[in-house]
Amino acid sequence: MSRSAHTASGTAGTAPASDAGEAGSGGLRERKKRATRQALQQAAVRLFREHGPGAVTVEDICASADVSPRTFFNYFTSKEEVLVPWDRDTIDNTSTRVLERPPEEEPLEVARAVLGEAIGTAMSGPTWRDQAVVLRHHPELIEKIVTSFRTLEASLAEGFAARLGRTAEDVYVRLLSATTITTLRVSVQSWQDSESDESLRHYLDETFERLRQGLRPNELG
Fold first, then answer.
1. What is the reported pTM?
2. Per residue of the chain (221 residues), what is the pLDDT tens digit?
3. Is residue 183 within 8 Å of residue 215, measured between CB atoms?
4. N or C, which end of the chain is more exposed by having fewer CB within 10 Å?
5. CATH number at residue 180
6. Inside any domain, residue 219
7. Residue 220 in domain
8. Domain residues for 23?
9. Do the beta carbons of residue 118 and residue 90 sit within 8 Å?
């Protein structure tokens, strides 16, 4: 892609505050890391939409986000990985967050809380919606997203197994973890397809509430 394309695209700067969830404040260093990651995602997804993923290089993304390639690879292993909404630490630490929830919480409430934290660290809301457009036009990139969901599910299963004193292969643990990921996927799809200004967290809470009520069709309209 030419240098003029960079000029036309502009620079990403600091990513907007995420409307994908209500992230904890964290330390200054963590907030800066999150802002850099979101800026790279914002730049990459915009360039993917404008030029197609095949025409965009890591160098193009870095130039648009005004960071070095070395910084890019501190966050992602490839340009395709930019489309994964959450970072590797969020996925890897999911099992720990499951264990850290209050012991009196029911499994579904634990799942809702942990996923709420995960989407709070995800890419910014507008970027996530643009990501959906890129994936619709380039379905060959979906495998990265599928892999991230599988890894997140495995981390959930590990956490629930330890929390419940079972194994990750236990039928209940598998069902709980798979149901949690399906609930997240449905929440994301509903949010991306909507024209509402509601946050992803709103859709996540609503979907979990439907699940908690036994999927009765008329409870929430």
1. 0.79
2. 543 344 334 444 443 334 444 444 458 888 888 889 999 999 999 999 999 999 999 999 999 999 999 999 999 999 999 999 888 888 989 999 999 999 999 999 999 999 999 888 787 778 888 888 899 899 989 988 899 999 999 999 999 999 999 999 999 999 999 999 999 999 988 988 887 888 889 999 999 999 998 877 765 55
3. no
4. C
5. 1.10.357.10
6. no
7. no
8. 3-212
9. yes
Is 217 inside a domain boundary?
A: no
100 assigned to some structural domain: yes
Distance of CA 194 to the CA centre of its chain: 18
Question: How many domains is the chain partitioned into structurally?
Answer: 1
Q: For the chain, how many residues are written?
A: 221
Q: Residue 116 corresponds to which tokens in the numbers above?
A: 């709420």
Q: Are 211 and 182 in contact (CB under 8 A)?
A: no
Helix %, strand %, coil % for the chain, to 5?
Answer: 70, 0, 30
- Single-letter amino acid code for the residue at 45: V
